[in-house]
Amino acid sequence: MPTFTASRKRVYEALTDSGQFDKVTQASGVMKELSQRPEPTRISPDEGGRFVLFGGYIVGRHIELVPHELIVQAWRVGNWNRGVYSLVRFELLDVSPGTRIVFDHTGFPTGNAAHLAAGWQAHYWDPLEKILAAG
User: Fold this and answer.
1) Handedness of CA 33, 37, 42, 47 (dihedral sign)
2) Contact assessment for residue 51 and residue 60, using Cβ atoms and an 8 Å cutoff
3) What is the largest CA-CA distance in the chain?
């Protein structure tokens, strides 16, 4: 489970604010890998709202948002078959000092587990740690 020295509020904002998440995207270096013209990071602050991440490679909708506690998303990779969404859940827990994310990703297409796990580490957890440590 990813653990960060930042508060739940800071972690939540990094995952749900377009400007903050854009810093995560930049720190991940993923935009250098995208050949097409990328879409800007857009994250709605509302339940039911859409998000576009990593230049449009990841898109979805917020299913449930509990500020500083819980984020549940219908989440998909752009090259999955149309209408195929997985469910992503981030539960933010206080730990001393900082925040632990209890993370769950279910419902993705068969055969994608290893690729997705590597992607979460390289494009979420590692850059998020850099951004949150920088203050």
Assistant:
1) negative
2) yes
3) 42
Return the DSSP state at 49: -
Cα–Cα dist 127/13, whole Å: 14
- Please tell me the distance from the alpha carbon of residue 42 to that of residue 114, in angstroms, as a whole number: 27
Residue 80 DSSP class: S
Strand order in the sheet with 98-106: 3-4, 98-106, 86-95, 70-77, 58-66, 50-53, 42-43
The pLDDT tens digits for 67-103 are 999 999 999 998 999 999 999 999 999 998 899 999 9
Query: Which residue is associated with the tokens 């078959």?
Result: 81
Residue 29's Cα: distance from chain center in Å? 15
Quick one: which of 81, 80, 100, 102 has its CA closest to 91? 102
Give backbone dihedrals phi and psi of 60, rounded to 5 degrees, phi first. Answer: 170, -165
